[in-house]
Design brief:
The complex is a heterotetramer, with 2 copies of chain A (271 residues) and 2 copies of chain B (315 residues). Chain A is built from 14 helices and no strands. Chain A is mostly helical and 271 residues long. Chain A has a single domain, classed as MetI-like fold. The longest helix of chain A has 36 residues. Chain A is globular. The longest helix of chain B has 18 residues. The chains are: A mainly alpha (271), B alpha+beta (315). At the A-C interface, helix 1, helix 3, helix 4, helix 5 and helix 6 of A face helix 1, helix 3, helix 4, helix 5 and helix 6 of C.
Chain lengths: 271, 315, 271, 315
């Protein structure tokens, strides 16, 4: 089936070009259109810098937590049978299937001063809404499934042979995980972590609803980009921020491409 | 160490179940569990190892009831059907894994791994990864890894199944020799009767989760308890309405035979030759001869011959 | 490894409860808090209905197109080797890795009256921005990867044996696809289509930027929910819209759970 | 239809390559391509089918150069190693696929499928799906599917590799009979010499992508061109510094032997017995006897015996 896929390739490439390629090119042209110094002064404004800082801080909290929970849940789903397993598995689809706006609104309901969680937390002096804590919570929710969804197929394909072998050789559950299971799924974990990071850096809808959009306090980079463009009509600031975020995402993307290649090679090895 | 299995029962789904299996495995023996696929033989092995828990019954190793003991504390060496190598560890790390888990000193581990690699003839591959090994080498690595912990019992699941015919024959020989060297009680599972007959000193024949017959391989071959065992343990044909081994029949002159017939084909397979005869009652049978017997008899297709059972069936 | 996963289960369930479970419960309670008639009158307001209608129309256009392109691209990636294959594969990650805001901003740049695409299109009387067309385009972009990413692993695992067998039996490329390949990957395709649908219905960020948020014209359901809550302070309208969208997503979710189960069974069959 | 392969060469990676292979496959023959794994035998089959294109050389079927013909127009029946059943079609649909693609009338397809299912003895499974069939049944379905298009050539890739020993032996017999019935030129690939010897009337032995020897199975067994063929085609041992077949050696009294030695083990495998002898020069050899020969000789371990080559090596 070698030489007659040209029409197919043409259609796919055209589609990608219209939807993804050219817009990205335009973004670069526009952001740097007034020269690099203008771009640089835009992205070093205090508001832009604090948005970048918050985005990185949120990622630094949300990604590790979601990684640990994702790996744990993946082990449950792929290696155990228990009542409620399918429910658990399905809950991990909620953040993908449900609009970020709904997630945001739902979080507001739960953590507002009159919500079940919000009331006691407020009494303890903990403000979730309109604070960085809310941003972290919203981000963790939307980026929840990626580690689990990356790992489970690999765990299922891997089978339990190596783990059982380790067990007959005297290893306990913890040692089996660290010495046998984790090394075997490491590329899938990294792939999931990278996706989680991408989703964390880019999240917009849920954060917008939860954060209250307070400049310098709860503005992540995506919110800053939107706010500059939509509310403050600071077009260059918006484009510049978008380019910075896009470049971060591109780095993430490059890592994803490398990891996917590794993982496919692994699959071939397994077959 | 001896193993006794007492009324072991394990169900899941319809196949691979084990139904009320009892057996005694003698200390130091090499026992083959033989049966067609789905007969429950691999499940039986997992029950002995503890990787599966029986629904009923118990496993006793060396007088100690281990039914409730976790596999990691049973001191069992288990070789998986596809060897289950740790793919991200080299051969040395694979073989040393059990000792590392047991917190032996690096020096001791090093010495023991060297010794084992010499035993399985893999010294030159010590730093290789499983992906760089051939099937036979992986198998030997898996054996060394299982032997490293000085197990009381060695369990092998279809140890030669995934290998080429030539490598298979070699490894079979080698496993037998190895067993004579180290004399650890060994149970292996196979669906290949030739393999079982050649390697094992005890056979347990299984079918549909139950033990059909067990004992000395040759005794089972000579005196199968059922037609199933008869057909499973070696080539079978029918003669005068009964199941017979083709080498228990002989070709004689037309007048000496119990029945007469016409030779329809002669196939020479090297050492062995197969002569097919269409009998006067309309059935067809075949006789197994050695090449030397065939050479001395001057047979040809279409010849009329007599067929009878040899008198010395028991010897 | 049967009975000692309780602590792990506890942690995972608690985490899910805090992030996903309770917020959803709250949403239901709030939306129906003033009784069903109030909820009903909210969601049958003209603006709400027109938002629902647009959401469904956008899905009806974006999902089929992305399915065809996704299946085609998956076949290219899994079955052919060509120069640029890794680039194509990576481009399909862009919509996941890059923030929807950036995608929105980039689309605005490309299709604004002064953009490369926008200028000629405007001359032909085609307005992309601030029109339903822009909403469709933004939605197609963000929901691009899901079909491809669902199918490729299955195609790789399936191997080419059945396709080669069909070929030796005399089948051409088209017949092989319809009679052999497509039936073999049908659950994966459906899974991908369902994810695409979920993403299409829920998309918020990119659409918000591109649409100009014109009530009754470019407001999809997520935008309507946000707009009611954030701009018009119509809290009940927002909650009611969110509940409708959430119920649609739940239906999608149920389908996903069923399909994933099917697909895993298939994998086990293949092994 | 005859097949000629002319200087076929195909490279990818280091193993499975084919290097300048030329061979003639006679019309109506059943030819086995035999070799260890990685010897390029499966690649050769794919080159004949057109599923792979050679880097150099040509494939001629029945006088027509088909090197550039798409596999769908080569009229070839190909059975894949794992049968490649269409999993979402039942047995009837699977077998009828090739005819449906050829736009035969439903009536004609129906009749032909019934006929083929009768031929492969699967009438009772016509409405079953591949997942509901046993390995042997899947294999037979794959054969029927390949035969449905009345191919000029039938190609079988490791047709018995994935099956249990007993089923394998049965199917082997059955394929041979089928071939005698329909007489389509058949090429099968296998790594199992016994299989090849039993089924095929022509052998092509491959190693590292090249043809080592080809011809009549028994001729290759008797007169192997290299030590590799000798060892690959049957059991081998060494005697007096040369490679020998264990059945070409005989046990005689100490004074009659070319060399003398002591019996170290006697293994009885049913029809065949293996007697291992440690020779006076320190080497070890083994002799293959039929059970009847063994019974008549009264051997026992530790007995001193003479060993010599039989005089009638050629017969």
């Amino acid at each position: 089936m070698g030489r007659r896929h040209w029409p197919l390739r043409g259609v796919v490439l055209l589609y990608l070009g219209v939807l993804v390629g050219l817009p990205v090119v335009f973004l670069v042209l526009k952001a740097l259109g007034h020269g690099f110094p203008a771009f640089w002064s835009e992205i070093t404004k205090p508001d832009a810098l604090s948005a970048l800082k918050l985005s990185i801080e949120v990622a630094a909290i949300a990604v590790p937590i979601n990684t640990v929970v994702g790996v744990g849940a993946a082990l449950l789903v792929a290696r155990h049978n228990f009542f409620g397993k399918r429910v658990l598995d399905t809950i991990f689809d909620v953040p993908v299937a449900i609009s970020p706006v709904i997630i945001g609104v739902a979080l507001v309901l739960a953590y507002s001063r009159i919500g079940w969680f919000g009331a006691p937390l407020t009494r303890w002096g903990i403000m979730v809404l309109f604070s960085p804590l809310g941003v972290v919570l919203a981000t963790m929710t939307v980026s929840l499934p990626y580690v689990l969804r990356s790992i489970v197929p690999v765990l299922l394909e891997l089978g339990v042979d190596q783990e059982q072998a380790a067990r007959t050789l005297g290893a306990g559950r913890v040692r089996i995980f660290w010495y046998v299971t984790l090394p075997a799924i490491r590329w899938a974990v990294l792939y999931g972590v990278t996706l989680t990071l991408a989703r964390t850096l880019g999240e917009f809808g849920a954060v917008l609803v939860v954060s209250g959009n307070i400049t310098g306090v709860t503005q992540t980079l995506p919110i800053y980009i939107f706010d500059s463009w939509d509310q403050r009509f600071d077009v260059l600031g918006s484009y510049s921020g978008a380019l910075v975020l896009a470049m971060m995402s591109m780095a993430v993307l490059a890592v994803l491409a490398l990891l996917r290649r590794r993982e496919r090679r692994l699959r071939v090895d397994l077959a | 160490m001896s193993i006794s299995l007492k009324h072991l029962t394990k169900h899941y789904g319809s196949t691979n179940a084990v139904e009320d299996v009892s057996a005694e495995i003698v200390h130091g023996s090499l026992t083959a569990v033989l049966g067609p696929s789905g007969s429950g033989k691999s499940t039986l092995l997992k029950l002995i190892s503890g990787l599966e828990r029986p629904d009923q019954g118990s496993v006793v190793i060396d007088g100690e009831d281990v039914t409730d003991v976790d596999p990691r504390h049973r001191d069992i060496g288990f070789c998986f059907q596809h060897y289950a190598p740790f793919r991200h560890m080299n051969v040395t790390k694979n073989v040393g894994f059990g000792l590392k888990v047991r917190k032996r000193s690096p020096k001791e581990i090093d010495a023991r791994v060297k010794e084992l690699l010499a035993l399985v003839k893999l010294e030159h591959k010590a730093k290789h990864y499983p992906a760089q090994l051939s099937g036979g080498e992986r198998q030997r690595m898996a054996l060394a890894r299982a032997l490293a912990i000085e197990p009381r019992v060695l369990l092998l699941d279809e140890p030669f199944g995934a290998l080429d015919a030539v490598v298979r024959a070699e490894l079979r020989h080698w496993v037998k020799e190895l067993h004579q060297q180290i004399h650890v009680t060994t149970v292996l599972v196979t669906h290949d009767q030739q393999e079982a007959m050649e390697v094992a000193d005890q056979l347990i024949v299984m079918r549909s989760g139950r033990v059909v017959q067990s004992g000395d391989p040759l005794a089972l071959y000579e005196r199968p308890a059922t037609d199933f065992v008869h057909e499973f343990l070696g080539p079978s044909t029918t003669f005068a309405g009964e199941v017979a081994r083709p080498h228990d029949l002989e070709l004689v002159s037309v007048y000496q035979g119990t029945m007469k017939g016409r030779i329809t084909s002669i196939v020479s397979l090297g050492f062995e030759a197969q002569v097919t005869v269409e009998l006067s009652d309309g059935t067809s049978t075949w006789v197994q001869l050695s090449r030397n017997e065939l050479a001395s008899m001057g047979l040809r297709v279409a010849l009329l011959v007599g067929v009878r059972r040899r008198d010395d069936v028991e010897f």
